[in-house]
Amino acid sequence: AQTVTQSQPEMSVQEAETVTLSCTYDTSENNYYLFWYKQPPSRQMILVIRQEAYKQQNATENRFSVNFQKAAKSFSLKISDSQLGDTAMYFCAFMNRNNNDMRFGAGTRLTVKP
Amino acid sequence: DAGITQSPRHKVTETGTPVTLRCHQTENHRYMYWYRQDPGHGLRLIHYSYGVKDTDKGEVSDGYSVSRSKTEDFLLTLESATSSQTSVYFCASGNDLTYNEQFFGPGTRLTVL
Fold first, then answer.
1. Any chain B CB within 8 A of the CB of A100?
2. Which residues have a Cβ under 8 Å from the Cβ of B52 and sit 6 or more positions away?
3. How many C-beta atoms surround the C-beta of residue B4 within 10 A?
4. pLDDT in tens, B48-101
5. What residues in A contact B44, CB-CB < 8 Å?
6. Is the CB of residue A100 less than 8 Å from the CB of residue B50?
7. Inter-chain contact B44–A105, Cβ cutoff 8 Å?
């Protein structure tokens, strides 16, 4: 079974600075997707960014980018120019494309300070 | 936003009673999922469906059953609720056309006394 580990329960960053959230996963599969989801206090789950495992190029979405190291099974999220609205729980997730089974990490609570 | 709703949004029940949570999506998504969210555990997959009447177990399926008789509806049943099933339950849906992005419902807070 796949496991996802987020080793940083809480992090904080000053507004406008850059922060990196860590995620590692364990799998024997080759066909999978990786995701970062954001959960603000409203509790709504919002997709931040996705990465297909077969793509070597790191995904980017505006201020959000990932560092995908397939051999190391690492998938970190970098948030540039942090904004107060980025304050939320961030979850790393792994999807096995063969059966659509999805596993989430325990989350990192990010606080952006003014 | 994908049209995905959950009902009820809040429920308090007693140990031993059956409970059914409903998830409804209007996007014609093939896949639907039920998760529970507990502090320190993130989201854990309970059951998922890859089509009408096609379901499979997730990571924490014991004590839960599901049914999907229509594309748009996915029901989660706690046959005999226990206090350990007190949690926030999320439904999600998605399909291959969305590159497996899952769209989440607003969640249901269930308290079992």
1. yes
2. B68, B69, B70, B71
3. 24
4. 998 999 999 998 999 999 999 999 999 999 999 999 999 999 999 987 766 578
5. 104
6. yes
7. no
| Omega before residue B8 within 30° of 0, cis | yes
B31: closest CA among B94, B91, B74, B89? B94
- Short-list B112, B89, B92, CA closest to B103: B92
Contact A105, A5 (CB under 8 A): yes
Handedness of CA B47, B10, B100, A68 (dihedral sign): negative
Is the Cβ–Cβ distance between A32 and A96 less than 8 Å? yes
Q: What angle do CA A98, A99, A101 make, to 5 degrees?
A: 120
The residues, ordered by sequence, that sit 6+ positions from A2 with a Cβ below 8 Å of its Cβ are: A25, A26, A27, A29, A32, A94, A96, A101, A103
